[in-house]
């Protein structure tokens, strides 16, 4: 396999003035005609005329009207061209109906749609398919489909055709085309400077009632980007299309965002509070890309975090503003620890800006996205809000219309703040999660914190250098008052001390407030101190984290020493639950236990081989103990947080439901599911129905609910995805693989639909003790299906290989099973580049 290196970047030998495309759509034989005006690039040294192209049948090619015969390989063509401006014309034929990889032009449920990022455009026509080649596109679509869409503004339409023109130069990865029998949910928006924008969400006829929330979220996003970043929309129309078969959440194509239907469609009956929140965030994310991604794009794919880290950071700010900032922050940290930490600390570790890849689709990772966003959050914390705003204004000003690098981005901050960011840049180039240890000293009213940072070596760097760490700290006095409010310490050395003078008593430190840096805080602290912070900390994040640490430590003691659940944790939790001054959503977060994989990671970090069954048992025991301990309070809490009236997905209502449903899950351990059955039978929204469904499955009395749920929702693909995943996620460890296997034989299982595949096999990977079954049955089932899917859809196959990334932390027996299954995958004939790269890296 060929490895591509960041250090080998060279500019393309030609610039493009304009691209004209004509599509004659037909399921098995779509013709694509291109007319592209090239001219030599004065900044380039290599003038080879190479156009990417894959799975294309070339019908004819011309240069300045004269037929030419290019040299064609599997990856593209080369051709001799004039040393002066010239016009390239080509006609190719492609087969969208058989495109199961869902990359390039493909069909989903009878409609045509595209996915070009990162390198899908080369499956549509011959083109320099790289993000630093930007051009204006004019697109004509010939088809008898009633709705014909592409990027930019409408430029004419008639019977069987439509034309679109996008005035903003863009790379090919932002190209999109849609043609289908669609209905629209229309609206409009007036920008701050008075541009009238037509908004549409396009869906299949039966989904028209699921668009209203997405549209409101879009308008909120447009307003927010004007108010907070001063960024206006720049076309006359903004279209969103919902597609059932899609490899990821959504795609920010210029003026024509294409969404996985699961990431845009929502109604109270069919979508949960969590779905609504996620939809709002994804709509915002894709919309925000219009500036951070589209107007300013990436020079090459190594710079992916330039647009993704920044846009994730922006969508997190948006959600924090729309909803509860602490709840959003805690949710993001849970996600970071669950997805990014294992990646950064395992065989798939790579820098936020990787420096090599075989298949770029394998680098749309939690590290690039979520750690990339953490890096921007740290930068903002270090320079301050005003300087951040000035830097962003300068960034938009200086680089509008360009394809940029991380160096450009950091230069903007250096120029706007006069800070030297040489050391900070390591966050982009050095992989791994720093571990931070803390020593304390107290003498004569002076309290000293000494931090030591270290990052374990990995395949990317054998010697890790100290990072710049913004460490937000507050100090509490023993009576619970805050004596030193949040202070930002800037750590740059491997070991560094910070002192606080004039204190009357030895304080209790609250360290890493708001999770100010993406590190592992290895601080030995007593249960009583954690309980103190859980009771008194003024920072919502560290307060929650104190509870989390207590839960983790008690679970670890249960697993390793057979200890009983710790009183400090149970008492602390009971107090939080009763504290009605706290936001219900926040209380629900404190009630949740660390996940099994987080515990496995914590055990591994302590040098103990994690036993998935023991972890599962400890979690079950702790939940049962909690339920019994809180027995008297539970019915009252459940009743107090029922939300009356018609369903609304707002954060406050959702918070009440999330607390009530966390309580319901405890009640289920005491009443064997009686209350859950009542809630399931009477639910008028999916949040309530699904929570009750989960309780019934957990109580092993789900049979009737499984049948009833299916009967009710069999016509709704998105709800049936939930039906598939819930049964696997809630299966007992010894039944998870067989449940998943049985579901793959269900008539509604569709290997070609990524949502259904992920619901079933991804559900298995989420069932920790079920996937990591000692007999290897979980690994074997996943491997069977990855081998089947690889021929059809390499991207989704490769992404799901990550389920194996933690394999080396388990015992020899499990390791042998995992290795054997990965070797079986590697041995599959014609294994895709995507899957081969993933498994090879994981096995290293
Ligand atoms: N930019 C797309 C992701 C494309 C993934 C290609 N494998 C969605 C997003 O991040 O907004
Ligand atoms: Zn993105």
From TrEMBL:
Residues 529-844 form the Peptidase M1 alanyl aminopeptidase C-terminal domain. Residues 24-174 form the Aminopeptidase N-like N-terminal domain. SUPFAM superfamilies: Leukotriene A4 hydrolase N-terminal domain, Metalloproteases ('zincins'), catalytic domain. Its cofactor is Zn(2+). NCBIfam families: pepN_proteo (TIGR02414). Belongs to the peptidase M1 family. This is Aminopeptidase N.
């Amino acid at each position: 396999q060929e490895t591509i290196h960041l250090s080998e970047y060279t500019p393309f030998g030609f610039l493009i003035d304009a691209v004209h495309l004509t599509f004659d759509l037909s399921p098995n034989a779509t013709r694509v005609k291109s007319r592209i005006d090239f001219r030599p690039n004065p900044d380039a040294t290599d003038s080879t005329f190479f156009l990417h192209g894959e799975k294309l049948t070339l019908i004819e090619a011309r240069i300045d009207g004269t037929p030419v015969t290019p040299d064609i390989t599997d990856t593209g063509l080369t051709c001799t061209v004039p040393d002066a401006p010239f016009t390239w014309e080509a006609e190719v034929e492609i087969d969208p109906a058989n495109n199961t990889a869902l990359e390039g032009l493909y069909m989903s449920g009878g409609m045509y749609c595209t996915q070009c990022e990162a390198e899908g455009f080369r499956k549509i026509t011959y083109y320099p398919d790289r993000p630093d080649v930007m051009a204006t596109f004019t697109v004509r679509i010939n088809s008898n489909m009633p709705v014909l869409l592409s990027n930019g503004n409408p430029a004419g339409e008639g019977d069987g055709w439509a034309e679109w023109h996008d005035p903003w130069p863009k790379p090919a990865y932002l190209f999109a085309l849609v043609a289908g029998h669609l209905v629209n949910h229309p609206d409009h928006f007036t920008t701050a400077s008075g541009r009238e924008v037509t908004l549409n969400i396009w869906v299949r006829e039966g989904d028209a009632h699921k668009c209203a929330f997405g549209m409101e979220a879009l308008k909120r996003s447009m307003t927010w980007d004007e108010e907070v970043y001063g960024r206006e929309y720049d076309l006359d129309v903004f279209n969103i299309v919902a597609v059932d078969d899609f490899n990821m959440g959504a795609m920010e194509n210029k003026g024509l965002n294409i969404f996985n239907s699961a990431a845009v469609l929502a109604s109270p009956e069919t979508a949960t509070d969590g779905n609504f929140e996620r939809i709002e965030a994804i709509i915002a994310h894709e919309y925000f890309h219009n500036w951070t991604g589209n107007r300013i794009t990436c020079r090459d794919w190594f710079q992916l975090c330039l647009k993704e880290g920044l846009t994730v950071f922006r969508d997190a700010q948006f959600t924090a503003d729309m909803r509860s900032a602490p709840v959003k922050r805690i949710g993001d940290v849970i996600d970071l620890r669950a997805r990014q930490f294992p990646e950064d600390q395992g065989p798939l570790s790579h820098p936020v800006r990787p420096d090599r890849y075989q298949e770029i689709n394998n680098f749309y990772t939690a590290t690039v996205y979520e750690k990339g966003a953490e890096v921007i959050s740290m930068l903002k914390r270090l320079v301050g809000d005003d300087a951040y705003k000035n830097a962003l204004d300068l960034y938009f000003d200086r680089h509008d219309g360009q394809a940029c690098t991380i160096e450009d981005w950091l230069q903007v901050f250096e120029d706007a703040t006069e800070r030297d960011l040489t050391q900070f840049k390591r966050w982009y180039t050095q992989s791994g999660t720093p571990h931070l240890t803390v020593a304390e000293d107290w003498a004569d009213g002076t309290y000293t914190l000494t931090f030591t940072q270290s990052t374990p070596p990995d395949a990317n760097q054998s010697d890790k250098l100290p990072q710049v760490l913004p460490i937000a700290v507050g100090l509490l006095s023993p009576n619970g008052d805050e004596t030193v409010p949040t202070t930002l310490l800037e750590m740059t050395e491997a070991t560094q001390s910070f002192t606080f003078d004039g204190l009357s008593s030895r304080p209790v430190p609250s360290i890493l407030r708001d999770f100010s840096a993406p590190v592992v805080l290895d601080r030995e602290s007593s249960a009583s101190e954690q309980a103190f912070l859980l009771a008194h900390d003024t920072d919502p994040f560290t307060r929650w984290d104190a509870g989390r640490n207590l839960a983790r430590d008690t679970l670890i003691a249960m697993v390793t020493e057979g200890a009983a659940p710790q009183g400090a944790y149970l008492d602390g939790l009971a107090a939080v639950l009763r504290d009605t001054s706290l936001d219900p959503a926040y209380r629900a977060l404190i009630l949740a236990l660390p996940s099994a994989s987080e515990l496995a990671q914590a055990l591994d970090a302590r040098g103990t081989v994690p036993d998935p069954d023991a972890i599962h048992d400890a979690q079950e025991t702790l939940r049962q103990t909690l339920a019994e301990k809180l027995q008297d309070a539970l019915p009252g809490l459940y009743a107090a947080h029922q939300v009356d009236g018609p369903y609304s997905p707002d954060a406050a209502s959702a918070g009440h439901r999330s607390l009530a449903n966390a309580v319901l899950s405890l009640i289920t351990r005491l009443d064997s599911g009686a209350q859950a059955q009542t809630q399931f039978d009477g639910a008028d929204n999916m949040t309530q129905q699904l929570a009750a469904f989960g309780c019934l499955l957990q109580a092993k009395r789900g049979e009737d609910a499984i049948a009833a749920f299916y009967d009710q929702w069999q016509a709704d693909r998105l709800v049936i995805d939930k039906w598939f995943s819930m049964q696997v996620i809630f299966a007992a460890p010894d039944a998870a693989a067989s449940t998943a296997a049985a579901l793959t034989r269900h008539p509604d299982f569709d290997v070609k639909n990524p949502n259904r595949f992920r619901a079933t096999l991804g559900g298995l990977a989420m069932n920790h003790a079920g996937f990591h079954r000692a007999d290897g049955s979980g690994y074997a089932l996943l491997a069977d299906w990855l081998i089947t899917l690889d021929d059809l859809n390499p991207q989704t196959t490769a992404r799901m290989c990550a389920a194996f990334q933690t394999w080396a932390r388990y015992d020899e027996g499990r390791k042998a099973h995992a290795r054997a299954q990965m070797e079986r995958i590697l041995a599959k004939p014609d294994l895709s580049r995507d899957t081969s790269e993933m498994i090879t890296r994981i096995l290293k």
